[in-house]
Structure prediction request, 72 residues.
Amino acid sequence: MTVCSFNDPRSIPCRKVVYRDAVCFEHAECKCAVCGQQAVTICPHGSGKLCNSPLCGGEDCRLKHHKSHYSG
Prediction:
């Protein structure tokens, strides 16, 4: 049985049964805030609390998100 690979830094790994694209039914509708592809994690940055923006696994998206939200 394959389990969901979605990584939410606020909680324990999801581990529900995969629905499509390596994620469960709950996370299948979660799209990257930068490119719109399947999200695999939640942004772990923020001041005092997590950002909560869904992100795909792409380094470019992570960098673009970080630059647009956290660069002064």
